[in-house]
């Protein structure tokens, strides 16, 4: 069980990542990169200025915004 203090620290760290750029690898192999608008403790993420890349790297698509559920994310890199 999470303590209230740990939950506060996690939320504080995640909120500090708003407006940061991120590269996400999804469980299906798709890559997403974009700017974080919102992120929560379950790693549900709202991105803007997002680029999607297919698993084989041949298909690229730009979308203005996308919402990703945390359970679909395999890897996350902040930069």
TrEMBL record:
Highest taxon above the source species: Eukaryota
The keyword Chaperone is assigned to this record: no
Pfam family, one: LSM
Annotated InterPro entries: LSM_dom_sf, Sm_dom_euk/arc
Cell cycle among keywords: no
Transmembrane regions listed in the UniProt entry: none
Domain Sm stretches: 12-78
Keyword list, A-Z: Nucleomorph
Annotated protein name in UniProt: SnrpD
Species of origin: Hemiselmis andersenii (Cryptophyte alga)
Lineage: Eukaryota, Cryptophyceae, Cryptomonadales, Hemiselmidaceae, Hemiselmis
């Amino acid at each position: 069980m999470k303590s209230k203090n740990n939950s506060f620290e996690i939320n504080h760290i995640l909120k500090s990542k708003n407006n940061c750029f991120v590269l996400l690898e999804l469980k299906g192999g798709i890559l997403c990169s974009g700017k974080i608008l919102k992120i929560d403790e379950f790693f549900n993420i709202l991105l803007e200025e997002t680029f999607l890349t297919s698993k084989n790297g041949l298909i690229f698509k730009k979308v203005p915004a996308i919402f990703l559920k945390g359970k679909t994310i395999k890897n996350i890199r902040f930069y």
